[in-house]
Amino acid sequence: MISVEEALERIQQHATPRASRLMQATESLGCVLAADIQSDVDSPPHDKALMDGYAVVATDIEPGVELSIREEVTAGDVPTKRVAPGTATRIMTGAPIPDGADAVVMVERTELIGGDESVVRINSDNVKSGQNIMPRGQSIRSGDVVLRTGRTIRPIEMGVLAECGATEISVYPRPSVAILSTGNELVAPDTRPKAGQIRNSNGPMLEALAQRAGGTAVNLGVGRDERDDLEQLVRSGLREDVLVLSGGVSAGVLDLVPEVLAANGVEQVFHKVHLKPGKPVWFGIKSDAKGDKLVFGLPGNPVSSLVCFELFVRPALGSLAGQDFSSIERRTAHLATRHSRYSDRPTYFPARLFECAGQLQVEPLAWKGSADLRTLADANCLALFPPSDSAFAEGDAIEVFLL
Ligand code: AMP
Ligand code: MG
Fold first, then answer.
1. Is 280 exposed, middle or buried, given 0-12, 13-18 or 19+ CB atoms closer than 10 A?
2. Is the Cβ–Cβ distance between 378 and 350 less than 8 Å?
3. Ligand 1 pocket residue status of 185, Cβ below 6 Å
4. Cβ-based neighbours of 123, under 8 Å, separated by 6 or more
5. CB 184 near ligand 1, within 6 Å
6. What atom of ligand 1 comes closest to residue 301's alpha carbon?
7. Which of 147, 172, 200, 349 is the most exposed place for a label (fewest CB within 10 A)?
8. 305 close to ligand 1 (CB < 6 Angstrom)
9. Residue 202 near residue 302, CB atoms below 8 Å
10. Residue 141, Cβ neighbours under 10 Å: how many?
11. Atom of ligand 1 nearest to the CA of 252
12. Stronger pLDDT, 269 or 288, i.e. the higher one
């Protein structure tokens, strides 16, 4: 049986970014840029007022000076008059600085005098050249590369793209992920299970995990443990970049997933990994002109499904989407209590991570095993207990994986 690390290496070999394509910038949230973005404008496009107030000649100002007002310029206007000593232009934030002026005095430091508001008294002392002005191009110069290939588009990048006029951009598209839950016992969440049945909790959970990992999920529903039914659904699933199945990969008489995948041209890369929960996990590829399709067969128990998704599927989806192949975020923490449930396999144990007196501490939860999703819902991490034949003591340093 291979280790988690070796499984990750093998997955990484097959998880290469999908072909880049052009996309509307407004639809690209979460995508990774496949080409540099250059600005077609200076930002700001003109020397710009950063305050509401008066544009003046700095050397002209001493406290109490009275200036005649040339004109009023608001954002969106273009100044038409030059500011010379003895004069000022009333200006609003964002408006272009008129020729001749080199400082803006904020309105709070001024006073309009004369009945017709044609003269302003400046009460500010020490007005410096450049004060309250952002020079043209200080943030961006036309032609600058503002975002580089490999950058993930967050809301901030959306704003930068808009500022630079990049409305259609080259990105690695989100991988499409088919989700197929298998099992004769499964019924939909809106159905009351009859004798022997349970609700399909993996389907919605894996769909949400795929979305959150940057994929677009296609939920194929439930496949029965019958070759024909599974084959038909597997064929649909293989139209997507990634197919994630749950159930049917263990040693039971109705665990048909590996053979159905093989019959549909999916080549096994590994079956079974040295971990708990999730040992029966299966991974394979179907070669395709457009790149390998990745197929993950996750064990049906919900906690095993989640652990295997987080460990193996998430990094693969990131890599297909043009991000680094990076495994789940980890920290080192100290055990808050003694832990005596040990195993011959590395165990990813539902736990709560918290800070106490400046130290990261982790408390394993009262977890009842791979079918106990409810306790996992109270966890914010998985504590990794290496194989051991003795108990772990309070204060022991262990690795934890953030959920
Ligand atoms: P399997 O991997 O198919 O042997 O399933 C292992 C256990 O997980 C069985 O108890 C199943 O009933 C349960 N199981 C399988 N699929 C699901 C699912 N989609 N949702 C909830 N439990 C499941
Ligand atoms: Mg099953």
1. buried
2. yes
3. yes
4. 63, 64, 109, 110, 111
5. no
6. 8
7. 147
8. no
9. yes
10. 13
11. 4
12. 269
- Beta strand 242-246 with 267-271 is unpaired
DSSP label at residue 25: G
For ligand 2, the distance from its centroid to the CA atom of residue 332, given in whole angstroms, is 35
Q: What global pTM score does this model have?
A: 0.88
> Which ligand is located closest to the Cα atom of residue 254?
2
Cα 149 to Cα 31, 37, 176, 317, 400, distances in angstroms? 11, 8, 22, 18, 32
297 CB under 6 A from ligand 1? no
pLDDT digits (tens, 9 = 90+) for 307-350: 999 999 999 999 999 999 988 899 999 999 999 988 899 999 99
Ligand 1 near 202 CB (within 6 A): yes
Contact 83, 100 (CB under 8 A): yes
Q: Give the Å distance between the CA of 137 and the centre of ligand 2.
A: 62
How far is the centre of ligand 2, averaged over its atoms, from the C-alpha of 221 (Å)? 14
Distance of alpha carbon 249 from alpha carbon 271, whole angstroms = 9
Give the pLDDT confidence score for residue 85 in this predicted structure: 96
Asked whether the bond before 155 is cis by omega within 30 degrees of 0, the reply is no
Q: Walk me through the domains of the chain, giving residue ranges and CATH numbers.
A: 4-18+174-320 (3.40.980.10), 22-42+152-172 (3.90.105.10), 48-134 (2.170.190.11), 330-402 (2.40.340.10)
DSSP 128-158: -TTTTEEPTTSSB-TT-EEE-TT-B--HHHH
| H or E element, residue 322 | none
CA neighbor of 177 nearest in space, from 293, 34, 302? 293
